[in-house]
Specification:
The chain has a domain of 26 residues. By secondary structure, it is largely without helices or strands. 0% of the residues lie in helices and 0% in strands. It has no helix or strand. It is elongated and about 40 Å long. Pfam families: TehB-like.
């Protein structure tokens, strides 16, 4: 469990589940390793 004021980092293969309460607030930040080609290596969608 992650409490108020705490943070956690998890790998992309991990299934994330957020249980919300009436006053729950959270942020999600995504990043990619520097050696990864973010345009071609991360996504499999093709540009039109």
């Amino acid at each position: 469990m992650i409490h108020a004021g705490q943070f956690a980092t998890s790998p992309p293969q991990y299934w994330h589940r957020v249980e919300l309460s009436d006053d729950a607030r959270f942020n999600i930040h995504f990043w990619v390793a520097e050696e990864t080609d973010g345009e071609n290596g991360l996504f499999h969608a093709k540009k039109a």
